[in-house]
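User: I'm curious whether this sequence folds into something compact or stays loose and floppy. Could you predict its structure so I can see for myself?
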Amino acid sequence: MLQSLHIENVAVIEKADIAFDKGLLVLTGETGAGKSIVIDAINAVLGERITRDVVRAGTDKAFIAAVFTDLPAPVVAALEEQGFAPEEDGSLLVQRSLTADGKGQSRINGRPATVSTLRLIGRMLVNIHGQHENQVLLQPERHVAYLDRLGDLQSVRDAYEQEYQTYCRIRRAIKAATMDEEEKEYKASLLTRQIEEIDAAALQPGEEATLLSRRELARHSGKLAGLLQQVRGAMDGGEGDTLGALALLSDAVAALHTAGTVSDELMELSTRLQSALYDVQACAEEARQAEENLAFDEDALSALEDRLAVIQRTVRKYGVDEADVLKKREDLQGQLEAIHSNDAYLEDLQRQSDIARDATIAASRKLTEARRQAAVRFEEDVCRQLALLDMPHVRLAVSIEPTALTAIGGDKVEFLLSSNPGEPPKSIARTASGGELSRIMLALKSVLADVDDVDTLVFDEVDSGISGRAATRVGAMLRQIAGTRQVLCVTHLAQIAACGHTHLMVSKNVTEGRTFTHVDPLEQPERLQELARIIGGEATDTTLSAAQEMFTRAQV
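Assistant: Here's the prediction. I'll summarize afterward.
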Protein backbone atom coordinates (compact mmCIF):
# COMPACT_ATOMS: atom_id res chain seq x y z
CA MET A 1 0.00 0.00 0.00
CA LEU A 2 1.00 3.65 -0.38
CA GLN A 3 2.56 4.78 2.92
CA SER A 4 3.78 8.29 2.14
CA LEU A 5 4.11 10.82 -0.65
CA HIS A 6 6.63 13.66 -0.86
CA ILE A 7 5.99 16.44 -3.39
CA GLU A 8 8.29 19.34 -4.27
CA ASN A 9 7.61 22.13 -6.76
CA VAL A 10 4.72 20.44 -8.54
CA ALA A 11 2.30 23.06 -9.94
CA VAL A 12 1.07 25.13 -6.96
CA ILE A 13 2.53 22.74 -4.36
CA GLU A 14 5.89 24.03 -3.17
CA LYS A 15 6.44 21.20 -0.71
CA ALA A 16 4.12 18.63 0.85
CA ASP A 17 4.59 15.44 2.85
CA ILE A 18 1.48 13.29 3.01
CA ALA A 19 1.14 10.19 5.19
CA PHE A 20 -1.38 7.57 4.14
CA ASP A 21 -3.01 4.85 6.18
CA LYS A 22 -5.16 1.82 5.51
CA GLY A 23 -8.84 2.05 4.73
CA LEU A 24 -10.67 4.87 2.95
CA LEU A 25 -8.80 8.17 2.69
CA VAL A 26 -10.86 11.11 1.45
CA LEU A 27 -9.33 14.22 -0.04
CA THR A 28 -11.38 17.43 -0.02
CA GLY A 29 -10.84 21.15 -0.50
CA GLU A 30 -12.05 24.17 -2.38
CA THR A 31 -12.21 24.02 -6.17
CA GLY A 32 -8.77 24.88 -7.52
CA ALA A 33 -6.98 24.16 -4.25
CA GLY A 34 -4.91 21.41 -5.86
CA LYS A 35 -6.64 18.14 -5.04
CA SER A 36 -6.12 16.72 -8.50
CA ILE A 37 -2.45 17.77 -8.37
CA VAL A 38 -1.95 15.18 -5.62
CA ILE A 39 -3.41 12.53 -7.92
CA ASP A 40 -1.27 13.82 -10.80
CA ALA A 41 1.80 13.51 -8.57
CA ILE A 42 0.96 9.88 -7.76
CA ASN A 43 0.45 9.24 -11.48
CA ALA A 44 3.77 10.87 -12.31
CA VAL A 45 5.89 9.05 -9.71
CA LEU A 46 4.48 5.75 -11.01
CA GLY A 47 5.76 6.39 -14.52
CA GLU A 48 2.70 7.82 -16.21
CA ARG A 49 2.97 10.71 -18.63
CA ILE A 50 4.26 13.98 -17.19
CA THR A 51 4.77 17.31 -18.95
CA ARG A 52 7.32 20.02 -18.19
CA ASP A 53 4.62 22.53 -17.24
CA VAL A 54 4.11 20.55 -14.05
CA VAL A 55 7.28 22.20 -12.70
CA ARG A 56 6.30 25.04 -10.35
CA ALA A 57 6.85 28.46 -11.92
CA GLY A 58 10.12 30.04 -10.83
CA THR A 59 11.81 26.72 -9.94
CA ASP A 60 14.16 24.45 -11.87
CA LYS A 61 12.94 20.99 -10.94
CA ALA A 62 9.90 19.10 -9.71
CA PHE A 63 10.50 16.08 -7.46
CA ILE A 64 8.14 13.37 -6.23
CA ALA A 65 8.87 10.38 -3.98
CA ALA A 66 6.51 7.64 -2.80
CA VAL A 67 7.02 4.85 -0.26
CA PHE A 68 5.06 1.60 -0.52
CA THR A 69 4.83 -1.17 2.09
CA ASP A 70 3.26 -4.63 2.31
CA LEU A 71 4.16 -5.34 -1.33
CA PRO A 72 2.09 -8.09 -3.00
CA ALA A 73 4.01 -11.15 -4.24
CA PRO A 74 3.46 -10.29 -7.95
CA VAL A 75 5.07 -6.87 -7.38
CA VAL A 76 8.11 -8.44 -5.69
CA ALA A 77 8.44 -10.92 -8.57
CA ALA A 78 8.18 -8.13 -11.15
CA LEU A 79 10.82 -6.09 -9.30
CA GLU A 80 13.23 -9.03 -9.24
CA GLU A 81 12.64 -9.66 -12.95
CA GLN A 82 13.62 -6.02 -13.63
CA GLY A 83 16.74 -6.31 -11.46
CA PHE A 84 15.39 -4.59 -8.32
CA ALA A 85 14.40 -5.76 -4.86
CA PRO A 86 12.49 -4.38 -1.86
CA GLU A 87 14.43 -2.91 1.08
CA GLU A 88 15.24 -5.14 4.05
CA ASP A 89 12.05 -3.98 5.80
CA GLY A 90 10.01 -4.88 2.68
CA SER A 91 9.38 -1.29 1.63
CA LEU A 92 9.78 0.27 -1.81
CA LEU A 93 10.93 3.84 -2.51
CA VAL A 94 10.01 5.24 -5.92
CA GLN A 95 11.34 8.65 -7.01
CA ARG A 96 10.95 10.80 -10.11
CA SER A 97 12.13 14.28 -11.02
CA LEU A 98 11.55 16.56 -13.98
CA THR A 99 13.48 19.70 -14.86
CA ALA A 100 12.02 22.81 -16.44
CA ASP A 101 13.72 21.94 -19.74
CA GLY A 102 11.95 18.57 -19.90
CA LYS A 103 14.70 16.25 -18.64
CA GLY A 104 13.98 13.77 -15.91
CA GLN A 105 15.33 11.01 -13.68
CA SER A 106 13.67 7.98 -12.11
CA ARG A 107 14.85 5.77 -9.27
CA ILE A 108 13.67 2.63 -7.49
CA ASN A 109 15.16 2.15 -4.02
CA GLY A 110 17.90 4.61 -4.90
CA ARG A 111 18.93 2.89 -8.13
CA PRO A 112 18.35 4.43 -11.57
CA ALA A 113 15.31 3.04 -13.39
CA THR A 114 13.61 3.68 -16.71
CA VAL A 115 10.20 5.32 -16.87
CA SER A 116 8.82 2.17 -18.50
CA THR A 117 9.95 0.13 -15.49
CA LEU A 118 8.27 2.63 -13.16
CA ARG A 119 5.09 2.34 -15.21
CA LEU A 120 5.20 -1.48 -15.15
CA ILE A 121 5.62 -1.62 -11.37
CA GLY A 122 3.34 1.36 -10.75
CA ARG A 123 0.34 -0.17 -12.47
CA MET A 124 0.70 -3.19 -10.19
CA LEU A 125 0.80 -0.97 -7.10
CA VAL A 126 -1.94 1.60 -7.77
CA ASN A 127 -5.07 1.66 -9.90
CA ILE A 128 -6.17 5.24 -10.61
CA HIS A 129 -9.71 5.89 -11.78
CA GLY A 130 -10.52 9.36 -13.09
CA GLN A 131 -13.47 10.85 -14.91
CA HIS A 132 -11.89 10.02 -18.27
CA GLU A 133 -12.10 6.31 -17.46
CA ASN A 134 -15.89 6.58 -17.48
CA GLN A 135 -15.56 7.15 -21.21
CA VAL A 136 -14.23 3.59 -21.52
CA LEU A 137 -17.78 2.42 -20.87
CA LEU A 138 -18.82 4.27 -24.02
CA GLN A 139 -16.29 2.28 -26.10
CA PRO A 140 -17.59 -1.27 -26.72
CA GLU A 141 -14.19 -2.46 -27.97
CA ARG A 142 -12.85 -1.96 -24.43
CA HIS A 143 -15.56 -3.97 -22.71
CA VAL A 144 -14.02 -7.37 -23.44
CA ALA A 145 -10.99 -6.50 -21.30
CA TYR A 146 -13.23 -5.83 -18.29
CA LEU A 147 -15.12 -9.10 -18.77
CA ASP A 148 -11.89 -11.10 -19.05
CA ARG A 149 -10.45 -9.49 -15.92
CA LEU A 150 -13.62 -9.83 -13.91
CA GLY A 151 -14.00 -13.43 -15.06
CA ASP A 152 -10.33 -14.20 -14.31
CA LEU A 153 -9.98 -15.59 -17.84
CA GLN A 154 -6.31 -14.76 -18.43
CA SER A 155 -5.17 -18.40 -18.67
CA VAL A 156 -7.94 -19.27 -21.18
CA ARG A 157 -7.16 -16.14 -23.17
CA ASP A 158 -3.42 -16.90 -23.13
CA ALA A 159 -4.10 -20.39 -24.51
CA TYR A 160 -6.16 -18.90 -27.33
CA GLU A 161 -3.58 -16.21 -28.12
CA GLN A 162 -0.85 -18.85 -28.41
CA GLU A 163 -2.87 -20.83 -30.96
CA TYR A 164 -3.85 -17.65 -32.81
CA GLN A 165 -0.25 -16.44 -33.05
CA THR A 166 0.84 -19.84 -34.40
CA TYR A 167 -1.91 -19.68 -37.02
CA CYS A 168 -0.95 -16.12 -38.02
CA ARG A 169 2.72 -17.06 -38.29
CA ILE A 170 1.93 -19.90 -40.67
CA ARG A 171 -0.36 -17.68 -42.75
CA ARG A 172 2.44 -15.11 -43.03
CA ALA A 173 4.78 -17.86 -44.17
CA ILE A 174 2.25 -18.90 -46.83
CA LYS A 175 1.93 -15.33 -48.02
CA ALA A 176 5.71 -14.96 -48.19
CA ALA A 177 6.05 -18.22 -50.10
CA THR A 178 3.28 -17.37 -52.56
CA MET A 179 4.86 -15.39 -55.39
CA ASP A 180 4.47 -15.13 -59.13
CA GLU A 181 6.99 -16.63 -61.51
CA GLU A 182 8.73 -13.34 -62.28
CA GLU A 183 9.23 -12.59 -58.58
CA LYS A 184 10.35 -16.18 -57.98
CA GLU A 185 12.95 -15.96 -60.78
CA TYR A 186 14.28 -12.61 -59.50
CA LYS A 187 14.59 -13.83 -55.91
CA ALA A 188 16.24 -17.10 -56.98
CA SER A 189 18.75 -15.14 -59.08
CA LEU A 190 19.55 -12.84 -56.16
CA LEU A 191 19.99 -15.73 -53.73
CA THR A 192 22.22 -17.56 -56.21
CA ARG A 193 24.50 -14.51 -56.63
CA GLN A 194 24.78 -14.09 -52.87
CA ILE A 195 25.64 -17.76 -52.35
CA GLU A 196 28.24 -17.66 -55.14
CA GLU A 197 29.83 -14.54 -53.65
CA ILE A 198 30.15 -16.20 -50.25
CA ASP A 199 31.51 -19.41 -51.81
CA ALA A 200 34.05 -17.43 -53.84
CA ALA A 201 35.41 -15.93 -50.63
CA ALA A 202 36.16 -19.46 -49.30
CA LEU A 203 35.93 -18.28 -45.72
CA GLN A 204 37.45 -20.23 -42.85
CA PRO A 205 36.41 -19.47 -39.25
CA GLY A 206 39.18 -17.52 -37.50
CA GLU A 207 41.13 -16.83 -40.70
CA GLU A 208 40.81 -13.04 -40.45
CA ALA A 209 42.27 -12.98 -36.93
CA THR A 210 45.21 -15.13 -38.09
CA LEU A 211 45.93 -12.94 -41.10
CA LEU A 212 45.69 -9.75 -39.04
CA SER A 213 48.29 -11.21 -36.69
CA ARG A 214 50.57 -12.11 -39.61
CA ARG A 215 50.19 -8.65 -41.10
CA GLU A 216 51.20 -7.09 -37.80
CA LEU A 217 54.32 -9.28 -37.78
CA ALA A 218 55.12 -8.27 -41.34
CA ARG A 219 54.85 -4.58 -40.52
CA HIS A 220 57.41 -4.99 -37.71
CA SER A 221 59.50 -7.75 -39.28
CA GLY A 222 62.70 -5.69 -39.56
CA LYS A 223 62.76 -4.73 -35.90
CA LEU A 224 61.73 -8.24 -34.78
CA ALA A 225 64.44 -9.85 -36.94
CA GLY A 226 67.13 -7.72 -35.27
CA LEU A 227 65.89 -8.67 -31.83
CA LEU A 228 65.75 -12.36 -32.72
CA GLN A 229 69.31 -12.19 -34.05
CA GLN A 230 70.37 -10.87 -30.66
CA VAL A 231 68.57 -13.81 -29.08
CA ARG A 232 70.34 -16.27 -31.40
CA GLY A 233 73.73 -14.66 -30.68
CA ALA A 234 73.12 -14.88 -26.94
CA MET A 235 72.13 -18.54 -27.24
CA ASP A 236 74.71 -19.79 -29.78
CA GLY A 237 77.63 -17.43 -29.07
CA GLY A 238 79.35 -14.80 -31.18
CA GLU A 239 82.40 -14.70 -33.39
CA GLY A 240 85.71 -16.14 -32.18
CA ASP A 241 85.75 -17.99 -28.91
CA THR A 242 82.69 -16.25 -27.37
CA LEU A 243 80.44 -18.91 -25.93
CA GLY A 244 76.64 -18.68 -25.94
CA ALA A 245 74.19 -19.52 -23.21
CA LEU A 246 73.66 -23.08 -24.52
CA ALA A 247 77.37 -23.90 -24.44
CA LEU A 248 77.83 -22.40 -21.01
CA LEU A 249 74.83 -24.28 -19.66
CA SER A 250 76.13 -27.54 -21.18
CA ASP A 251 79.50 -27.02 -19.46
CA ALA A 252 77.74 -26.33 -16.16
CA VAL A 253 75.66 -29.49 -16.48
CA ALA A 254 78.76 -31.57 -17.22
CA ALA A 255 80.61 -30.11 -14.23
CA LEU A 256 77.70 -30.74 -11.88
CA HIS A 257 77.28 -34.27 -13.21
CA THR A 258 80.95 -35.02 -12.40
CA ALA A 259 80.53 -33.48 -8.95
CA GLY A 260 77.40 -35.53 -8.46
CA THR A 261 79.41 -38.76 -8.45
CA VAL A 262 80.49 -37.88 -4.93
CA SER A 263 77.41 -35.91 -3.76
CA ASP A 264 73.78 -36.91 -4.11
CA GLU A 265 72.66 -33.30 -3.63
CA LEU A 266 74.90 -32.11 -6.49
CA MET A 267 73.65 -34.97 -8.67
CA GLU A 268 70.04 -33.77 -8.03
CA LEU A 269 71.10 -30.21 -8.89
CA SER A 270 72.73 -31.56 -12.08
CA THR A 271 69.45 -33.22 -13.05
CA ARG A 272 67.48 -30.01 -12.50
CA LEU A 273 69.97 -27.97 -14.52
CA GLN A 274 69.82 -30.56 -17.30
CA SER A 275 66.02 -30.07 -17.44
CA ALA A 276 66.50 -26.31 -17.62
CA LEU A 277 69.00 -26.80 -20.46
CA TYR A 278 66.39 -28.74 -22.44
CA ASP A 279 63.89 -25.86 -21.95
CA VAL A 280 66.46 -23.30 -23.08
CA GLN A 281 67.33 -25.43 -26.15
CA ALA A 282 63.61 -25.57 -27.03
CA CYS A 283 63.29 -21.80 -26.64
CA ALA A 284 66.35 -21.29 -28.85
CA GLU A 285 64.83 -23.50 -31.54
CA GLU A 286 61.51 -21.61 -31.41
CA ALA A 287 63.37 -18.30 -31.69
CA ARG A 288 65.24 -19.57 -34.78
CA GLN A 289 61.94 -20.76 -36.30
CA ALA A 290 60.31 -17.37 -35.57
CA GLU A 291 63.23 -15.64 -37.31
CA GLU A 292 62.74 -17.81 -40.41
CA ASN A 293 58.99 -17.05 -40.43
CA LEU A 294 59.71 -13.34 -40.58
CA ALA A 295 60.91 -13.64 -44.13
CA PHE A 296 58.16 -11.59 -45.84
CA ASP A 297 58.55 -10.43 -49.39
CA GLU A 298 56.46 -7.75 -51.07
CA ASP A 299 54.42 -10.27 -53.06
CA ALA A 300 53.52 -12.27 -49.97
CA LEU A 301 52.49 -9.13 -48.07
CA SER A 302 50.39 -7.92 -51.02
CA ALA A 303 48.65 -11.31 -51.25
CA LEU A 304 47.94 -11.18 -47.53
CA GLU A 305 46.37 -7.71 -47.85
CA ASP A 306 44.25 -8.84 -50.81
CA ARG A 307 42.98 -11.86 -48.89
CA LEU A 308 42.10 -9.72 -45.87
CA ALA A 309 40.17 -7.32 -48.13
CA VAL A 310 38.08 -10.21 -49.54
CA ILE A 311 37.32 -11.55 -46.06
CA GLN A 312 36.43 -8.17 -44.59
CA ARG A 313 34.26 -7.15 -47.54
CA THR A 314 32.30 -10.41 -47.38
CA VAL A 315 31.90 -10.28 -43.59
CA ARG A 316 30.72 -6.66 -43.69
CA LYS A 317 28.07 -7.58 -46.24
CA TYR A 318 26.73 -10.80 -44.76
CA GLY A 319 27.51 -11.05 -41.04
CA VAL A 320 29.73 -10.21 -38.09
CA ASP A 321 32.46 -12.82 -38.59
CA GLU A 322 33.35 -15.78 -40.84
CA ALA A 323 31.24 -18.27 -38.87
CA ASP A 324 28.22 -15.94 -39.03
CA VAL A 325 28.62 -15.54 -42.80
CA LEU A 326 28.79 -19.32 -43.28
CA LYS A 327 25.60 -19.64 -41.22
CA LYS A 328 24.03 -16.97 -43.42
CA ARG A 329 25.05 -18.98 -46.45
CA GLU A 330 23.15 -21.99 -45.11
CA ASP A 331 20.07 -19.79 -44.60
CA LEU A 332 20.32 -18.43 -48.16
CA GLN A 333 20.67 -21.97 -49.50
CA GLY A 334 17.58 -22.98 -47.57
CA GLN A 335 15.61 -20.09 -49.07
CA LEU A 336 16.80 -21.01 -52.56
CA GLU A 337 15.81 -24.64 -52.08
CA ALA A 338 12.44 -23.49 -50.73
CA ILE A 339 11.85 -21.52 -53.94
CA HIS A 340 12.82 -24.49 -56.12
CA SER A 341 10.54 -26.74 -54.13
CA ASN A 342 7.93 -24.04 -53.50
CA ASP A 343 4.90 -26.10 -54.48
CA ALA A 344 5.70 -28.88 -52.03
CA TYR A 345 6.59 -26.30 -49.39
CA LEU A 346 3.28 -24.51 -49.86
CA GLU A 347 1.37 -27.76 -49.61
CA ASP A 348 3.09 -28.52 -46.31
CA LEU A 349 2.41 -25.02 -45.01
CA GLN A 350 -1.23 -25.32 -46.01
CA ARG A 351 -1.54 -28.57 -44.06
CA GLN A 352 0.02 -26.84 -41.05
CA SER A 353 -2.35 -23.90 -41.53
CA ASP A 354 -5.42 -26.15 -41.54
CA ILE A 355 -4.30 -27.81 -38.31
CA ALA A 356 -3.50 -24.44 -36.69
CA ARG A 357 -6.82 -22.97 -37.83
CA ASP A 358 -8.78 -25.86 -36.28
CA ALA A 359 -6.79 -25.50 -33.03
CA THR A 360 -7.42 -21.75 -33.00
CA ILE A 361 -11.15 -22.20 -33.58
CA ALA A 362 -11.31 -24.77 -30.78
CA ALA A 363 -9.46 -22.43 -28.42
CA SER A 364 -11.75 -19.59 -29.48
CA ARG A 365 -14.83 -21.64 -28.65
CA LYS A 366 -13.43 -22.42 -25.20
CA LEU A 367 -12.77 -18.72 -24.65
CA THR A 368 -16.27 -17.82 -25.83
CA GLU A 369 -17.86 -20.38 -23.52
CA ALA A 370 -15.75 -19.13 -20.61
CA ARG A 371 -16.82 -15.56 -21.39
CA ARG A 372 -20.49 -16.54 -21.50
CA GLN A 373 -20.19 -18.22 -18.10
CA ALA A 374 -18.28 -15.24 -16.71
CA ALA A 375 -20.91 -12.88 -18.15
CA VAL A 376 -23.67 -14.53 -16.10
CA ARG A 377 -21.71 -14.08 -12.86
CA PHE A 378 -20.62 -10.60 -13.97
CA GLU A 379 -24.20 -9.42 -14.61
CA GLU A 380 -25.35 -10.73 -11.22
CA ASP A 381 -22.44 -9.20 -9.30
CA VAL A 382 -22.62 -5.80 -11.00
CA CYS A 383 -26.40 -5.56 -10.70
CA ARG A 384 -26.11 -6.39 -7.00
CA GLN A 385 -23.58 -3.57 -6.58
CA LEU A 386 -25.76 -1.18 -8.61
CA ALA A 387 -28.65 -1.89 -6.26
CA LEU A 388 -26.41 -0.89 -3.35
CA LEU A 389 -25.63 2.31 -5.27
CA ASP A 390 -29.31 3.30 -5.38
CA MET A 391 -29.85 1.90 -8.89
CA PRO A 392 -32.11 -1.07 -8.00
CA HIS A 393 -34.00 -1.11 -11.31
CA VAL A 394 -30.95 -0.71 -13.55
CA ARG A 395 -29.88 -3.94 -15.22
CA LEU A 396 -26.51 -4.42 -16.88
CA ALA A 397 -26.42 -7.11 -19.58
CA VAL A 398 -23.47 -8.47 -21.53
CA SER A 399 -23.90 -9.01 -25.26
CA ILE A 400 -21.49 -11.53 -26.83
CA GLU A 401 -21.71 -11.82 -30.62
CA PRO A 402 -19.45 -13.86 -32.95
CA THR A 403 -16.89 -12.04 -35.09
CA ALA A 404 -13.94 -12.97 -37.27
CA LEU A 405 -11.00 -14.29 -35.26
CA THR A 406 -8.77 -11.55 -33.85
CA ALA A 407 -5.94 -11.36 -31.34
CA ILE A 408 -8.49 -11.26 -28.48
CA GLY A 409 -10.78 -14.03 -29.71
CA GLY A 410 -13.83 -14.40 -31.91
CA ASP A 411 -16.24 -12.34 -29.81
CA LYS A 412 -17.69 -8.85 -29.90
CA VAL A 413 -18.44 -7.97 -26.27
CA GLU A 414 -20.62 -4.99 -25.34
CA PHE A 415 -22.18 -3.90 -22.07
CA LEU A 416 -25.86 -2.98 -22.42
CA LEU A 417 -28.00 -1.08 -19.95
CA SER A 418 -31.68 -1.19 -19.11
CA SER A 419 -32.60 1.76 -16.91
CA ASN A 420 -36.21 0.76 -16.18
CA PRO A 421 -38.03 -2.55 -15.69
CA GLY A 422 -39.47 -3.95 -18.90
CA GLU A 423 -37.16 -1.98 -21.18
CA PRO A 424 -34.81 -3.97 -23.37
CA PRO A 425 -31.11 -3.32 -22.67
CA LYS A 426 -29.46 -0.82 -25.01
CA SER A 427 -26.01 0.54 -25.62
CA ILE A 428 -24.62 2.32 -22.57
CA ALA A 429 -23.59 5.23 -24.78
CA ARG A 430 -27.26 5.91 -25.62
CA THR A 431 -28.85 5.32 -22.23
CA ALA A 432 -26.51 6.20 -19.34
CA SER A 433 -26.16 9.66 -17.81
CA GLY A 434 -22.92 10.98 -16.35
CA GLY A 435 -23.94 10.05 -12.82
CA GLU A 436 -24.95 6.57 -13.92
CA LEU A 437 -21.60 6.10 -15.67
CA SER A 438 -19.76 6.98 -12.46
CA ARG A 439 -21.77 4.49 -10.42
CA ILE A 440 -21.53 1.76 -13.05
CA MET A 441 -17.73 2.17 -13.12
CA LEU A 442 -17.64 2.06 -9.31
CA ALA A 443 -19.70 -1.13 -9.39
CA LEU A 444 -17.20 -2.61 -11.86
CA LYS A 445 -14.30 -1.58 -9.62
CA SER A 446 -16.03 -3.09 -6.62
CA VAL A 447 -16.46 -6.44 -8.36
CA LEU A 448 -12.95 -6.23 -9.82
CA ALA A 449 -11.42 -5.71 -6.38
CA ASP A 450 -12.09 -9.38 -5.61
CA VAL A 451 -9.89 -10.59 -8.49
CA ASP A 452 -7.36 -7.76 -8.68
CA ASP A 453 -3.95 -7.88 -6.97
CA VAL A 454 -3.64 -4.07 -6.84
CA ASP A 455 -3.69 -2.97 -3.19
CA THR A 456 -4.31 0.76 -3.70
CA LEU A 457 -7.27 2.24 -5.59
CA VAL A 458 -7.53 5.93 -6.35
CA PHE A 459 -10.84 7.55 -7.37
CA ASP A 460 -10.64 11.10 -8.69
CA GLU A 461 -14.09 12.73 -8.49
CA VAL A 462 -16.07 9.48 -8.63
CA ASP A 463 -19.01 11.60 -7.39
CA SER A 464 -19.42 13.32 -10.75
CA GLY A 465 -23.10 13.74 -11.60
CA ILE A 466 -24.51 12.28 -8.36
CA SER A 467 -25.92 13.71 -5.14
CA GLY A 468 -28.23 12.94 -2.22
CA ARG A 469 -28.92 9.31 -1.37
CA ALA A 470 -26.86 8.06 -4.33
CA ALA A 471 -23.82 9.87 -2.89
CA THR A 472 -24.41 8.21 0.48
CA ARG A 473 -24.50 4.81 -1.21
CA VAL A 474 -21.31 5.58 -3.16
CA GLY A 475 -19.54 6.54 0.07
CA ALA A 476 -20.70 3.33 1.74
CA MET A 477 -19.42 1.24 -1.15
CA LEU A 478 -16.05 2.99 -1.16
CA ARG A 479 -15.79 2.27 2.56
CA GLN A 480 -16.74 -1.35 1.91
CA ILE A 481 -14.04 -1.73 -0.77
CA ALA A 482 -11.57 -0.15 1.65
CA GLY A 483 -12.10 -3.09 3.96
CA THR A 484 -9.67 -5.11 1.84
CA ARG A 485 -7.92 -2.34 -0.11
CA GLN A 486 -6.42 1.05 0.51
CA VAL A 487 -8.74 3.54 -1.21
CA LEU A 488 -7.97 7.21 -1.88
CA CYS A 489 -10.92 9.30 -3.06
CA VAL A 490 -11.05 12.93 -4.19
CA THR A 491 -14.57 14.21 -3.58
CA HIS A 492 -16.73 17.33 -3.40
CA LEU A 493 -19.59 15.62 -1.55
CA ALA A 494 -19.99 15.56 2.21
CA GLN A 495 -21.79 12.20 2.09
CA ILE A 496 -18.67 10.57 0.66
CA ALA A 497 -16.18 12.56 2.73
CA ALA A 498 -17.97 11.50 5.93
CA CYS A 499 -17.28 7.83 5.12
CA GLY A 500 -13.52 8.16 5.18
CA HIS A 501 -11.38 6.47 7.82
CA THR A 502 -8.90 9.30 7.23
CA HIS A 503 -9.65 12.81 5.97
CA LEU A 504 -7.04 14.92 4.15
CA MET A 505 -7.77 18.54 3.34
CA VAL A 506 -6.13 20.47 0.52
CA SER A 507 -5.97 24.24 1.03
CA LYS A 508 -4.14 27.10 -0.61
CA ASN A 509 -3.07 30.57 0.37
CA VAL A 510 -1.33 33.48 -1.31
CA THR A 511 1.85 34.86 0.26
CA GLU A 512 3.84 37.69 -1.29
CA GLY A 513 2.11 37.18 -4.60
CA ARG A 514 2.77 33.41 -4.75
CA THR A 515 0.20 30.64 -4.36
CA PHE A 516 0.97 27.81 -1.93
CA THR A 517 -0.98 24.58 -1.46
CA HIS A 518 -0.98 22.48 1.70
CA VAL A 519 -2.27 18.98 2.44
CA ASP A 520 -3.19 18.37 6.09
CA PRO A 521 -4.85 15.49 7.95
CA LEU A 522 -7.99 16.50 9.89
CA GLU A 523 -8.97 15.34 13.35
CA GLN A 524 -12.66 14.93 14.20
CA PRO A 525 -13.45 18.57 15.13
CA GLU A 526 -11.70 19.82 12.00
CA ARG A 527 -13.47 17.15 9.94
CA LEU A 528 -16.82 18.37 11.13
CA GLN A 529 -15.87 21.92 10.19
CA GLU A 530 -14.89 20.77 6.68
CA LEU A 531 -18.04 18.67 6.27
CA ALA A 532 -20.12 21.67 7.34
CA ARG A 533 -18.33 23.83 4.77
CA ILE A 534 -19.06 21.31 2.01
CA ILE A 535 -22.71 21.06 3.06
CA GLY A 536 -23.52 24.76 3.32
CA GLY A 537 -20.53 26.78 2.21
CA GLU A 538 -19.63 27.74 5.79
CA ALA A 539 -19.78 26.24 9.26
CA THR A 540 -22.98 27.26 11.08
CA ASP A 541 -24.87 25.60 13.90
CA THR A 542 -27.19 24.04 11.33
CA THR A 543 -24.47 22.76 9.00
CA LEU A 544 -22.36 21.56 11.94
CA SER A 545 -25.33 19.63 13.32
CA ALA A 546 -25.92 18.07 9.89
CA ALA A 547 -22.23 17.28 9.59
CA GLN A 548 -22.19 15.58 13.01
CA GLU A 549 -25.21 13.43 12.13
CA MET A 550 -23.78 12.55 8.71
CA PHE A 551 -20.40 11.67 10.19
CA THR A 552 -21.88 9.52 12.96
CA ARG A 553 -24.05 7.54 10.54
CA ALA A 554 -21.24 7.07 8.01
CA GLN A 555 -18.71 5.83 10.55
CA VAL A 556 -20.92 2.98 11.80
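Summary: The longest strand covers residues 395-406. The mean pLDDT is 85.
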